[in-house]
Structures are given as C-alpha cells and as structure tokens.
Amino acid sequence: MRAVRSEYMHWAKSQAPVTYALSSSEVPHFRLDRLPFAISDLELDGASYHRYPPLRQAIAEKEGVDPACVVMADGTSMANFLALAALIEPGDEVLVEFPVYEPLLAAARFLGAEVKRFERPGFALDPAAVERAMSPATKLIVITNLHNPSGAFASPEALAAVGALGPRVLVDEVYLDSGPRPGSAFHLGPNFVCTSSLTKVYGLSGLRCGWILAEPDLAERMWRLNEVMGVAQAHPAERLSCIALAHLDEIAAGREERLERNRALFNAFLAGRSDLECAPMESGITAFPRLLRGDPEALNALLRERFDTAIVPGRWFEMPDRFRVGIGQATEIVEDGLARLGAALDVLA
Ligand SMILES: Cc1ncc(COP(=O)(O)O)c(C=O)c1O
Questions:
Q1: pTM above the 0.85 mark?
Q2: Which domains are delineated in the chain?
C-alpha cells in the first residue's frame, strides 16, 4: 500500500501547546466577536449552496480575477491537494522546490508523481536553477511564495521567468499577503495555478476559507474533483468567510507594523548570536537559521521542557541542521520567546 500521510503535519498537530510558540507560522487568531454579525447571518437555510456564489465573488474581488477562475476549498491544504490532483497523472514528472513544506511533497508522491527537486540558492527562487533541474518530461513546477520555511519572497520577474519555461507552475501563496506585495502570480500567465487562504496572515485558520485560482476549464476540473471529496464546505463558515472578506482591512490592521517590529527584534537577536547563521529577515513570518553548534531537536526538547517555548526542528524541512522560527505572534510573546531561545542556546553551549 502507498503511504498516505504527511509526517510533518501529524507531528505538528500532535505537539502540546506552549506559551512562546515560535513554532507557529501564523499571526494571532482574530476574535470573531470583533466582526459585526448576528447569528441569523449564519443561517443554514437547509439548502445546499452549489459553489456558494457570494463567497466565490468575494474571493474573486480580493484577488482581482474572474469568479470562473476561483475554486473554494478547505484551507490552502485542500486547495493544494485539489490543484495537484487535477494536474498530476501517475508517473508525471513534478519539480518541487528544496526545501519545501512537506505536505506538498507528500501529496505529489501520493498522487503517483515522479518527484524531482530544484535548489533555492540562499532560498531565493532562481529560474536558472529550475531550468537546470527540468527535463522535457516535466509537467509541473511547485513553489511556495513566500517560501516556507525561509520566508524568502520571489519577485514577479523571477516567477515570470519560471513561467516562461513552459510547464504549469503551482504557487502556494498562503504567506503572500504578509506585506505590501504585488498580487497573485496567477496574473502572470495562463500556466500559473495559485492557492491561498485566510489562515496564516489573517488569523482565521478556524474558518478553513481556502481557494485555488486557475483557468476556467481547469477550475471546473477541480470543482468536479471536490465533489468526490467533500462536496461542499460548512455553510456557516462560508457565510462567515464572506463577512471576513468584507472586513479584511480591519482584520489586517496593525499587522504589517507588528511583523516589522518583530522582524527587527529577530534581526537584533541574530546579530548577538555567533551560534546561528541566517540572513536578516526582510519579509514574511518565518526564518530558517542554521544552528552552527548543537542539534535543533535537542534545542526544541530543552525549550519545551524548561522554557515553555517551541521551534520547528529543520528535519521537518529536509535540513536537520536548521530550525524554523516564527515571529507572527504578539510582540511581547516574540520578544520573550527570543530571550528564552537565547537562554536555551546558552544552556546547550
Ligand atoms: C506553505 C503552506 N501551505 C499551506 C499551509 C496550510 O494552510 P491552511 O491552514 O490554509 O490549510 C501551510 C501551513 O503551515 C503552509 O505553510
């Protein structure tokens, strides 16, 4: 039997919560009682809302695309799976970035893809590196932008150069809205398929409001595929997602300033450590430093045991001498968490 699982997701979901969750790649959860709605706005109506048009329209408006290009899904997770399942035939060659968010790799392998990898030098998206790894059989190229785990931003120019190589390009954009950036790579050309959600940078992971942007024929294939999987999303969540999309600016208020403050704290922390190697953070919510002396697994165990703090050991991102740090939480939490990380590093040394 083919293994059907994501080892990383299983591990991540089974970790006990800690106060200083530098392991998190999200901003703080947004409280629903800050949104103006009444319980009657979440009416079930007893109807099955086929491709709930108000939500499809609201996502299309947010992304600046035709609603015919929008497929709704349970989070970016399901969006990625549906996109891959619609694009991959067993035996197809799929080129996946290294390192990568593991569920993307697990899904491609589960679908029977012949997975090959391309390097991201210094974690940047380098079209020449993608081209070197390509073969005439390459059907799909898989990228995260911003990159998980490093947080590196791929410019529209770099993405367009990858698009010009020919195969379809799947871009997971779940972190893209964490700063002022150009819109989705979907606008770069018809071979781009992009996924995202209201999860990571809006603090609304509980809604599971995810989507795929794809050319209408391909989008239709994904809708049909989802009829085999979940048929429809929970309708109150769809209604809440519409309300959230109408208030995205309020939901995101203060986020960029907080992320900038937290990145500055992380960069100051880095400057004081000779045991970590990492480029200063310029974008996003996560960084992926190399631990020059010691074992990131032992560091995480010590942080959890003695410091009520957690990181993600790099083995979950295919680079066991590194670890992922998330700076999306409230500034006090990030500041204290970094102090605790420093104390744990000192103990290990
Ligand atoms: C690159 C990437 N894609 C997708 C997800 C999952 O997103 P969602 O919560 O919207 O399913 C994550 C979560 O860590 C992620 O890092």
A1: yes
A2: 7-28+254-348 (3.90.1150.10), 37-246 (3.40.640.10)
